[in-house]
Write a structure and sequence with these properties.
The chain has 401 residues and is α+β, with helices and mostly antiparallel strands. The protein is 28% helix and 35% strand. Strands 5-12-11-7-9 form a five-stranded mixed β-sheet, with no helix packed on it. A five-stranded mixed β-sheet has the order 14-21-20-16-17, with no helix packed on it. It has a four-stranded antiparallel β-sheet with strand order 4-6-10-8, with no helix packed on it. A hairpin with a 7-residue loop joins strand 16 and strand 17.
């Protein structure tokens, strides 16, 4: 690959087939938005579209590793997306929107594990594997033989002096205890020893709260047993969107374990996150707040103008000088407004409010225009949390007949 030019799709596929998972990450970054938009264009919800894109890239990771390199990676991915969607033919989406941020680690985590597994299997040398197995079997057989010979070997008798017995002295012991600890003192032949029992388990948590911010999907905390005895612990979550690993276990005295937390943003409603995880152990319990936020931009489907061609204004014979622009607008929170932006003469823009007409549909009238040509008309939607999404359609402005 060149030091100054980005690698081509064909070069990225070759690197991935050679075991480079980072190459597949770049393939994802280049094409995820179009694959995600392919499913949106077929009327899928954002969640279903993310599932379809996930299945598409996982299927692509397998096929790229098993088949010849495609000459057109974009068409290759859209053909897989069409197969996942059940379409007879792949058609590129008219409008491309960014894929959800949570989809990237979801796809690439699975691909990286598969690449690592495949590399490990390839690294195994069959000849060394057979030698290792032979050595293991030989060692086991040798140990069994040694145990058998030791079992049947006669024991040497212990020499004794006739008519004598060793003196027997009965030991004496005293035990005292105090709360959370115990001390045992034993006298043997005039010597005294003292042993203090370990303190009970006590779990300490590394943080008072977990903050995922507006984009993060991974976080962690640590549990430490500051006592001397082993202690059992368990963690529960108030939301199924928060995955905890591991969820339970045992910590020896002084031992620390790292707990990994995963936030599935596809299953989190738009707005502020206010959940908890609860750590429980034998003598205590602590709730830890989980905070952050999740935002979704409004998505605009199938923007169009009817009629798509109108006449330029200024001539009394021109009567068809306005058109109605429509689109379907969806968001996980309430919409604040939907507008259509346009320019009569190619200069300053005007903005017209669009009105709801049922089934998430919005309409607005634009025109007249004073310049002949192809005009861009942009639809912009705002939700109540200040997030915005947009899409563009075109209108042909022609001379009067």
């Amino acid at each position: 690959m060149s030091d100054t030019q980005p690698p081509t799709d064909i070069e990225l596929v070759a690197d991935y087939r050679a075991g480079d998972a980072n190459a597949f990450a770049e393939i994802y970054d280049r094409h995820a938005a179009e694959v995600f938009s392919y499913f949106l264009a077929r009327g899928r919800s954002r969640s279903d579209a993310a599932d379809g894109a996930n299945d598409t890239f996982l299927e692509a990771s397998t096929r790229l590793d098993l088949t010849d390199s495609p000459t057109d990676l974009r068409s290759f991915l859209l053909d897989i997306a069409a197969n996942v969607s059940g379409d007879a033919k792949a058609v590129a989406p008219d409008e491309v929107v960014p894929a959800p941020p949570a989809l990237r680690p979801r796809v690439l985590g699975k691909v990286e594990r598969e690449v690592a597994s495949a590399f490990s299997m390839r690294a195994l040398d069959p000849e060394w594997t057979k030698i290792g197995l032979f050595a293991l079997v030989t060692l086991i057989v040798g140990l069994v033989g040694l145990a058998v010979s030791a079992q049947f070997e006669p024991l040497s008798p212990i020499a004794t002096v006739p008519g004598t017995q060793p003196p027997v002295t009965a030991p004496t012991a005293t035990t005292s205890s105090v709360p959370d600890s115990s001390t045992t003192t034993a006298a043997r032949g005039g010597a005294t020893s003292s042993t203090t029992a370990a303190a009970p388990a006590s779990i300490e948590i590394s943080t008072d709260s977990i903050d995922f911010g507006s984009e993060a999907t991974a976080n962690e905390l640590e549990l430490t047993n500051s006592g001397g005895r082993p202690g059992q612990w368990e963690i529960s979550s108030s939301s199924q969107a928060i995955a905890v690993s591991p969820r339970q276990g045992e910590l020896a005295g002084g031992e620390t374990v790292t707990i990994e937390l995963q936030l599935d943003r596809e299953n989190v409603g738009e707005g502020d996150l206010a959940e908890t995880i609860t750590v429980t152990w034998s003598d205590g319990e602590q709730e830890i707040p989980v905070v952050g936020s999740h935002e979704d931009n409004p998505v605009i489907h199938n923007p169009q103008a009817s009629p798509a061609s109108i006449q330029v204004s200024g001539d009394p014979e021109c009567s068809n000088t306005q058109t109605t622009v429509s689109a379907r607008v969806r968001d996980t929170s309430a919409l604040e407004s939907v507008v259509v932006q346009w320019s009569p003469d190619g200069g300053a823009q005007e903005e017209t409010a669009m009105a709801p007409v049922g089934d998430d549909m919005f309409e607005g009238v634009v025109g007249p225009f004073t310049v002949v040509g192809t005009v861009d008309v942009r639809i912009v939607a705002f939700d109540e949390r200040g997030n915005a999404g947009g899409a563009t359609t075109q209108i042909a402005v022609v001379e009067c007949p």
